[in-house]
Specification:
Length: 123
């Protein structure tokens, strides 16, 4: 009888250890999948940002050179484009409140991390 109880206890402990090991492996796989997703999203975002920066740079050069040609000048086009960005900088620094950006960030993140947290809390 005692050996039977011991073998049942050993069997339960072995099953419990197997369950814990399997659970740890599942958590590792889930973490690896999420990290891969973050890595891919980061690389994609950086590449999109670089391409957008190049487009903006060359578009501004084009506009400045076009204004130079229209104004028959070598530098007024670049001055006008620079003045435009200077005015934009002043408006952003002085005129906009950080609450505007906080609202945009809340909207952007509402469907990502917070959505998963909210669904976990309701369950």
């Amino acid at each position: 009888m005692a050996t039977e109880d011991k073998s049942k206890t050993d069997s339960i402990i072995a099953n419990l250890m197997g369950y814990i090991d399997t659970r740890i492996e599942l958590v590792k796989l889930d973490l690896q999948t999420k990290l891969k997703g973050v890595f891919v999203s980061t690389i994609h975002g950086v590449l999109l940002g670089l391409v957008a920066l190049m487009v903006l740079l060359f578009l501004n050069l084009f506009i400045a050179l076009l204004l130079n040609d229209v104004l028959d000048s070598r530098y007024w086009g670049f001055g006008i484009v620079t003045l435009f960005y200077l005015i934009l900088l002043v408006v952003l620094v002085v005129g906009l409140d950080k609450k505007v950006f906080q609202g945009m960030a809340d909207k952007a993140f509402r469907n990502t991390i917070y959505k998963a947290d909210e669904s976990n809390q309701t369950n």
